[in-house]
Specification:
By secondary structure, the chain is an alpha+beta fold. It is built from 11 helices and 16 strands.
């Protein structure tokens, strides 16, 4: 009987001739004890002396230590939207390269292949742009490369991929924006329009021109008061309701006496208003369509959560006699409208700002008019702009 060491050498030689590639997998530990060795040797000897040739192992791509891939930038995208993924493949050998762009969980579980079979040049920054239809969450994206000889990367450095909730439908459409602004430009007097669409993009015509706020600033007085009071008494709820729902100027004077110019300026700063200017009393405050469109759309961000329902109830419950313009056009198209209007003189100045909501769509809109030839002309300008924006 030959020693265990000589038998092992014979098994290795015969395995090499017979394409048995993994002999170490079942003879590992032979040197640790003769008992484990003899469990594996008879089968190897049987294969060797009987002239049996094992089937070759499956062919796997060889790892090339000189082939390295790097995802270059963190990507944040809304589900279903397009995004750009930048990456680089470094290969000491050069030559043509093929890459797959793969999305994985942080633990390495493959979620989806975004792109397969992309041709890239070694050492150069490359990118792929495509739609990301993934559930909301955090992932990584990894680039896997193969060279012409079938060798894969030795190292792949991932980058973070953050997928946000899907965006709502785009409202208004680009065509609707053009239609509404063309109408506004053709109207008599001074007109300014600003709309923040359902994707958060601002569009407008003379949106940064300052106008007197008139009663529109009462919405800011409401928010400023609610921010400063954890509890609102029944009597103050009545005052606030009168100021918003009936546009009572005496009620606005009471609230302004509490909030003051400082409170309005602080709220304007908090909400990112760029051209807000206090100017004497509350009624002559100077505001712009762009600032108020953004403010109304995002108003919930500035109201304490416990007061949001109360504020919405007031801004959607304005009396019918003052629900001209924006609500007259938007409610017929099934939008919920939270708004405030203002006017001065014999309706020479007439303006409205609003938040419009329908299912997942949320818009901010402000239409200002001044120098109107008749009392109804400004109202019709506002209604016409709104109707043209909301039609497909």
């Amino acid at each position: 009987m030959k020693s265990g060491e000589s038998v092992l050498r014979r098994v290795r030689k015969q395995a090499e001739r017979s394409s048995i590639l993994d002999v170490d997998a079942w003879t590992t530990g032979a040197r640790r004890g003769r008992r484990r060795l003899w469990l594996g040797v008879p089968l190897a000897l049987l294969l060797a002396f009987a002239g049996v040739t094992a089937h070759p192992a499956p062919a796997f791509a060889e790892v090339d230590p000189g082939l390295v891939t790097t995802a270059l930038s963190v990507v944040t995208v809304h589900s279903g939207a397009r995004a750009t993924f930048s990456f680089r493949v470094d290969d000491a050998a050069g030559g043509p390269l093929t890459v797959d762009l793969v999305v994985e969980r942080a633990g390495g579980q493959v979620v989806r292949t975004l792109a397969a079979g992309l041709s890239v040049a070694a050492g150069q920054t490359a990118s792929w742009r495509g739609r990301v239809a993934l559930p909301r969450g955090s992932y990584v994206y990894v680039v896997h490369a193969t060279d012409a000889a079938g060798r894969t990367e030795a190292q792949a450095t991932p980058a973070a991929l953050h997928v946000l909730a899907a965006l709502p439908p785009l409202v208004p459409t680009p065509r609707a924006v053009r239609r509404a602004l063309t109408w506004a430009r053709a109207r008599a007097g001074d007109v300014a329009v600003a709309v923040v669409d359902s994707h958060g993009v601002l569009h407008g015509y003379r949106g940064d021109r300052r106008f007197y706020s008139a009663s529109m600033v009462k919405a800011m007085l409401l928010v400023a008061y609610l921010r400063g009071h954890r509890h609102v008494s029944a009597s103050m709820r009545g005052v606030l309701a009168g100021m918003i729902e009936h546009s009572d100027n005496a009620a606005a004077g009471i609230v302004y006496g509490i909030v003051g110019r400082r409170g309005l300026v602080a709220l304007a700063h908090l909400s990112g208003m760029r051209r807000f200017r206090p100017n004497g009393g509350w009624i002559t405050t100077l505001v712009t369509a762009a600032d108020l469109a953004r403010f109304f759309r995002d108003m919930h961000d500035y109201i304490p959560r416990r007061h949001i329902a109360f504020a919405d109830r007031l801004l959607s419950g304005i009396i019918p006699a003052e629900s001209w313009g924006v609500p007259a056009a938007a409610r017929s198209l099934h939008y919920r409208v939270y708004f405030k209007g203002g006017w001065l003189g014999a309706w020479v100045l007439a303006s409205q700002s609003a938040r419009l909501v329908r299912r997942s769509v949320r818009l901010g809109l402000a239409v200002f008019t001044d120098g109107n030839p008749t009392s109804d002309y400004g109202k019709e300008t506002i209604r016409g702009v709104t109707a043209r924006l909301l039609r497909p």
